[in-house]
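Many introductory courses stop at the sequence. We go one step further.
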Amino acid sequence: MASTKLDEKTSISEDITISGSPNVTPESLDDNYGLYKSTRDVALDHTEARKVLKKIDLRVLSILMVTYVLQYLDKNCVNIASVYGLKKDTHLKGQDYSWLTSMFYIGYLVFQFPFGYLLQHFPTGRLLSLTIIAWGVVLITTPACTSFAGIATNRFFLGALESAINPGFVLLISMFYTTGEQPLRIEAYYSTIGIATMFSGLIGYAVGHINTGLSKWQYIFLIFGAITISWGILIFFLLPDSPSTTRFLSTRERAVAVERVAANRQGIKNLTFKMYQAKQMILDPKTWILFIMALSSQIPTAAVTSFASINIASFGFDTLGTQYMLIPGGAVQLFGMLLGGWVATRWPGTRCVVMVVANTICIIGSGLLVGLPADNKGRLVALWLCYSQNLGFSMSLTMISSNVAGYTKKQLTAAVIFIGWCAGNIAARRRSSPKKLVSLISMIPRISGYHTAYLAMLIAYSIKLVMVFVLYIHMYMFNRKRDREQAATPFDEKEAIELGMHDATEFDNKGFRYIL
């Protein structure tokens, strides 16, 4: 990257008016602006920048990856425990178990905006680590639940606390990585779902061999709860809050870390909530396109993940064989997301292409599940193809980290997208009247061959594919318009970077372009 030295013609004064926003004030300055300003006249050394990136990967990315494995396993403890007496000991009947899976996402949904506010106003690393400790406490107390009401409440608060993780991780990625580096890093931590999927069944099988003391299902929550609490305490001291305050980098390295990310033209973090950015978020078509994509991407989740063991067992496998057959699906997630992240990083501007490919694979898989005879083992391969869905969704998260500027707008957009994510997960687990279209989408497997659920998957994947094309067209047209404006009225790159550090949104910063 070229030097970010500003000359007098391109410097931004404190009384500049940004289109559609209040005058720039001290409150509009990025939380890292002081460090940025002190080094912006110094050319960025690329060798030094690469060394800083390696340090950030080793500390930040490794923590995100381990945490995400634990988050996924903790969330799905109830699925493992369900075959070891949980339903009997907590007196679950009828649809009670289905409601337990829904209660997690209801808590997740309700706390999206509150945690978005907290993530903006408090140190990110400390808040996330304390949240991890708290949900570990919730998890380790689950064995004390003896009724549906008790365990449903427990699941609600587990979802509420885990709701900070995904938006918080997206914000951390945008704070520490350039836009070109973000796809592979987001896919790296999100791909650990594949690792968790591959080994969750085997972990449950191992716990099944415990024959002393408490009920087997209680050990699952006690073990994972204790691990999570310990991990939360550890990363309280290790996970940084921002590039300018991190302790594992030297003073010069912190300056380099800030300088690298300033080039994103969207700043790093701003502690002031700005109402005009909230209004822009609501009026931005991109927000609602991503919302529909998140909603439709999670409709098939129940059939693909939460009810994966049931689906695989329906193909004729015994209990142990069913657990082993989860491994290929996890491998598809792991290697598919890493490959997709690498492609989007190696060839900038291919993020929507990656989403189209991933979603097309899911459409092929669900189409085969609908069309193949029930006794055809090829349907198992088709089910594994549907695990590509997480690549499409996780790649859409880069649209938040890279294509939304203004910290208030970014955290609110993340909250809206994950509300859609929760709504899709809830819908996938609830039964509705078959007379309504929503019932086709929200039914969980309940009839011979699971045909209805697979048809719902096909419809949901098709809706998402259409929305990916709509998103691409919207962003492409936005960039074309900005290019025409640039040709008519030149806008300096350094000024665009400076506006980003003043917390300008992508609408207000004429030098901002979407990454397709």
